[in-house]
Amino acid sequence: MAAADELAFHEFEEATNLLAETPDAATTSKSDQVTPQGHVAVAMGSSGSYGAEEEEEVEEEGGDKAALLQEKPQPGFWTFGYYQSFFDVDTWQVLDRIKGSLLPRPGHNFVRHRLRNRPDLYGPFWICATLAFVLAVTGNLTLVLAQRRDPSIHYSPQFHKVTVAGITIYCYAWLVPLALWGFLRWRKAVRERVGPYTFLETVCVYGYSLFVFIPTVVLWLIPVPWLQWMLGALALALSAAGLVFTLWPVVREDSRLAAAALLSTVVLLHTLLAMGCKLYFFQPLPPQQVAVPPHATALGVNTLLPATPARATATS
To answer: Does the keyword Cell cycle apply (predicted)?
Structure first.
């Protein structure tokens, strides 16, 4: 016991001398070097920084989290999570893309300046739905307004126009971009410098190009034929110009014949869509919907009856 007391006294004396020489030094006894299992010993210096042991532990935890994020599986295309990113747009982005489709400019690429490699399906989906609904409603309103001007016209609701408009618009907005994307992919295999857009970018361009027809269809309610055709031609020119200006940077590296044929086909299909909507949903009233007045019917029957010859009456 005396030896142990003497050893402890010598340690205390050495520690006192060390503290006197270096006041910032820290001392630990042998018993303090043993830490309980599962705990980390942290040494805090005069500057207040943590030791290297905790830094290593933080780095290991950060690496584990990064590995977990990298190993997270991507959702399949049959799940809603896969398509969620295509609807992740705000109102200002949609309005900016609509503005770009209404004001096409040469040399101003819609994909590069508006989409910026982030195509969305939110705008094209609602633009197609709105256009189909407006087409069906205005087509029925045209008959209602015609009946008010002429009471002899018989009007009956045509609900099938909603289905026809929806199928026509959505098929055009999806099938035509699909065919265009496939053709450009084939041309890329023929000519390496031809670089097509992705399928979603092509769908997005076509979807936003149809927005100009929504106000045009509403203005078609004005019962002036020449004004209706003029508004339709203006909307067609703006929409087709936006498509041509967007596709030109892709097809200009191709041969002149292929580029001219492709752009002509795009404009022709757009023209057929506009004219088809105008002639089908705003067609003139068919003859069977115009009711014949009763006095006209009686007049027609009397006209068809053969007249009695005056000579025969005098003989009898």
So the answer is: no
